[in-house]
Amino acid sequence: MHSPAHIVVQLLGATGVFVLGYYALVNAYYLCIHILALFELRDNVREASWEQPFRRFSSPFYPGIALVVPAYNEEATIRESVQSMLSLNYPELEVVVVNDGSTDATLDRLIERFDLEPLDAEVPFDVPAEEIHETYRSTRYEELFVVDKANGGKSDALNAGIWLTEMPLFCAVDSDTLIDRDALLQIVKPFVKRPGTTVATGGVIRVANNCIVEDGLVKEVNLPKTGLPGLQVMEYLRAFYSGRLGLNRINGLILISGAFGLFRTDVVREIGGYRHDTITEDFDIIVRLHRYLTDEDREYTVDFVPEPVAWTEVPASRQMLGRQRRRWFRGMVETVVTNRKMLFRRKYGRVGTIIFPFFVAAEMFGPLIEGLGYIILPIAVYFDVLQIEFFIMFFLLTTGFGIFLSWFGVFSEVWSFNRYKEPRQVLRLLWYGVLENFGYRQWKTVVAWQGLFEYLRGVDSWGVMERGGFSSESEEDI
Length: 478
What we know:
By secondary structure, the protein is an alpha/beta fold. Helices cover 52% and strands 15% of the residues. The protein has 13 helices and twelve strands. The strands form two sheets. A ten-stranded mixed sheet has the order 3-4-5-2-1-6-11-8-12-7. Strands 9-10 form a two-stranded antiparallel sheet. Strand 4 (132-138) and strand 5 form a beta hairpin.
């Protein structure tokens, strides 16, 4: 009969082998997605090279768009962000800012900057949102509509805007986001090409930290100098130019960033709008659209367009970034649990049988198992249960392959719609691709475990995200 110590030792070895095999499978999935992304990016670059970026504004083919902007305590960035949206090139546009019970001067900044006046009209029907105190229209910009309501969270604010607009499409935009001038004319293309089946499209999100902003538009693209924002640039490049594009190639996109996504208003209303009991509404809404439209046996597409760009300010401190990532992880777990019946169901096509299960394995369980690997494998090697080669292989599968995927994202950026044009910027991106795998990556596995524990404890707080505001003066690079 084996002793307890022997059983523990054998269990350590088996766990180590499992971790190694699991991460080999996850990396094979990532490699396939990145290769598919290259083919998709090639086709998009070819299309963009001969297509005009936009037609004349008088074109009757562009559907009206409402930019729905939830705002909670965004006084630092709200004026530049709204000005950016009012400057967009689009023939029929309404900007709907929903002040979600801000306790700072967000509403005052809007009233002062855009000359808002209250509307003498009641809401004509029940809106699935918290009480609406007042609605405003700008006397300077007729297309600017502001809703002041009681605090209900981001999903609640989005629902207020969706139910108060008459536009056939709405674009969910974070209030700390700046959108390129022609971005709407690009992100709407799938709706113009396939108006009967397209239900949602997403664009690229880029990091605005250290970029120069004038009149609500990014005038000079700079890389963050040091620290966490620079590492997040790599994450965003990898996520959008590899992850989103690869999934789009096989019609399996299950996530559109909440900072910049375009949706059919009527279809989102059909599913009841955004859920109030979720903290990652962007992931949840897309999964629910897949589920609902498949259940209704309706033909549909969810697309990603790599050319339109929105810029956002990312957290600059470890405390704020950790709070954000723990929330993201809690929300991901909650969405997966809520929609678990889609997993491995042939009824939901490749989304249910391939995409969603692999997403769960890679994005939800992946960092948890990786974190275990950093602990289990060294212990197993120390007690001579596993050879040192196992840990070296694990290191290459995580850190080594991580550097490869990051450089893959840099290659996609330089090859396609390159915004970082200077050679030193590209070199710095390559350096970030190495740096993020030593310390930062391991820290994220700890954050993932913290997010899981918070989910199990029932934590549902959003967390305060402080904004530094956009820079209007150029700073000398180091």
